[in-house]
Design a protein that fits this description.
The chain is an alpha/beta fold. α4 runs antiparallel to α5 (134-146) and α8 packs across α9 (229-236). The protein has helices at residues 40-47, 69-75, 91-101, 107-120, 134-146, 164-179, 191-197, 215-222, 229-236, 240-251; strands spanning 2-11, 14-24, 29-33, 55-60, 63-64, 76-79, 152-156, 183-187, 200-205, 208-213. A hairpin with a 2-residue loop joins β9 (200-205) and β10. The strands form two sheets. It has a six-stranded mixed sheet, with helices on both faces. The protein has a four-stranded antiparallel sheet with strand order 2-1-4-5, covered by helices on one side. The protein is globular. It folds into two domains: 2-213, P-loop containing nucleotide triphosphate hydrolases (Rossmann fold, 3-Layer(aba) Sandwich), CATH 3.40.50.300; 216-252, no CATH class. The longest helix has 16 residues, at 164-179. The structure holds adenosine-5'-triphosphate and magnesium ion. Magnesium ion binds at residues 40-41, 81, 156.
Length: 252
């Protein structure tokens, strides 16, 4: 469903994403982890057609992104890291706008909006988007994406700004969607989410994928059983020793 071959992005001389390869089969929840600035958002932007790669090939839903951009965009959903949406619209106007673009302004979609609004406690569709908090906007975007039932969903740190209940509902919803064959690509800094939700995890550091596999396979890489993903992550991104010395020097 998602395939990237030698995907690369250079910003002038800076290599933000460095020849990465990704393959996500249908129905999988794929977790993309990495420190701040590692290249996660840049990768998502390329995979979803909002940023042109410097090099490499992308296939989504078995289609070449270069040749079938419109069809792919019609069938995928993207929840970006920042909820940037038209601030002069009211919540329901934004949802109608999205429904009109995708030509899905029908009874079924309205019903899904109602269900999703109830699930996420969205009772503010009459309010102007400019007057909403970060989390409130994030939930509106989630509804605008999930109401379309996309076949592949990309989410960039989707739980940031969500309260505990909404985050839990989102996690459970995504698991259910994946059981129904929806493919999910998500980035997160919350290792517990990756460990509990993602069948396959890839870790990117300085633009390069440094490890990829199931939790089991990642554990094998480290050679020690019973390691938490946090330990593994810090070990693989070589930050373990760093942390000790930083905390020590700050505690003096
Ligand atoms: N438009 C741009 N122009 C120049 N450099 C960019 C641009 N977008 C991203 N970068 C750089 O590319 C690198 C990767 O950024 P990216 O946003 O992909 O990181 P990230 O893994 O999503 O980090 P975070 O966890 O903080 O969200 C960073 O060094 C960033 O400064
Ligand atoms: Mg990011």
């Amino acid at each position: 469903m998602i395939k990237a071959i030698n995907l690369t992005k250079k910003f002038k001389d800076f290599m933000a994403v460095d020849h990465i390869n990704i393959e996500v089969p249908k129905g999988q929840i794929f977790g993309f982890l990495g420190p701040n600035g590692a290249g996660k958002t840049t990768t998502i932007r390329m995979l979803t057609g909002t940023l042109k790669p410097t090099e490499g090939k992308i296939e989504i839903l078995g289609l070449d992104l270069k040749k079938h951009e419109i069809e792919i965009k019609r069938r995928i959903g993207v929840v970006p890291d920042e909820p940037r949406i038209y601030s002069h619209l009211k919540g329901y106007e934004y949802l109608e706008f999205v429904m009109d673009i995708y030509k899905i302004n029908n009874k079924e979609t309205h019903q899904r909006i109602e269900e999703l609004s109830k699930a996420f406690g969205v009772n503010y569709l009459e309010k102007l988007i400019s007057d909403l908090s970060h989390g409130m906007k994030q939930k509106l975007i989630l509804i605008s994406v999930l109401m379309r039932k996309p076949e592949v969903i990309f989410l960039d740190e989707p739980t940031v700004g969500l309260d505990a209940k909404s985050a839990k509902i989102l996690k459970e919803l995504l698991k259910n969607y994946s059981k129904q064959s929806t493919t999910i690509f998500l980035t997160t800094h919350i290792l517990e989410i990756a460990e509990n939700m993602c069948e396959v995890i890839a870790i990117i550091n300085n633009g390069k994928i440094i490890a990829q596999g199931t939790m089991e396979e990642l554990r094998k890489l480290s050679g020690e059983k019973n390691k938490t993903l946090e330990d593994l992550f810090l070990e693989l991104t070589a930050q373990e020793e760093d942390i000790k010395s930083i905390v020590e020097s700050l505690s003096r």
